[in-house]
Amino acid sequence: MDIFKERLTEALQARHMRAAELARRTGLSKARISQYVNGKFVPKPEALLDIAEVLGVSELWLLGKTDDMTPAPSLTIPCPENLSPLRLRRYPVLGEIACGRPILAVEDPDAGYVTAADTTADFCLTAKGDSMIGARIFDGDEVFIQQTDVVENGEIAAVVVEGEATLKRVYYYPEEQKLVLEAENPDYEPLVFIGPDLETVHILGRAVAFQSKLR
User: Fold this and answer.
1) Which CATH class is domain 90-211?
2) Which of 23, 31, 91, 108 is most deeply buried (CB count within 10 A of its CB)?
3) Cβ–Cβ < 8 Å for 95, 165
4) Residue from 74, 131, 178, 213 carrying the catalytic annotation
5) What b/e string do you get for 131-167 counting C-beta neighbours within 10 Å, with b at 16 or more?
6) 168 is known as an active-site residue
7) Class of domain 2-62
8) 19 and 33 in contact (C-beta within 8 Å)?
């Protein structure tokens, strides 16, 4: 841990960069970068890669595994027509969201997930459960949410029900003052809210993308 602290400080000084600038350019929180600089934690592999890339040094050098701070050369290959370069952006994590019964969503300001930079999202949530498998959203997938309190009928949305969050297709019938939240799994009954019960429901936003691991 001490060697990482020393080499991070050395790299910051060599680049004439403040910790706040490193936080801005990596997308990590200022508090998290401060913990690294003060030697309280060593970053996980994803954060380590971001830090090394911004500082222009080798991850192995930061960890004290080598004395050569030069980053490894990038491998350049011709890009096929059906591939596009991927621009990345880190999104803040609100918490976990149930694909089943609602669960509490708690903001984690130090965490973040990375997806394509052109995704029109404001934050992401980690899916839990199997109620949205018909939409190819599985337990553990990262769902990227565009913040809005109004969605079109049939859109998948993150919805807070009595203080707890869930991911469902939303159908609203204003004439009947009725809101229906439907799963994408026949094993789950729709959640129906009528009249005064609507006050217990709040739409966080529409799902615009998800990120899944190979299974």
Assistant:
1) mainly beta
2) 91
3) yes
4) 131
5) bbbebebbeebbbbbbeeeebeeebbbbbbbeeebbb
6) yes
7) mainly alpha
8) yes
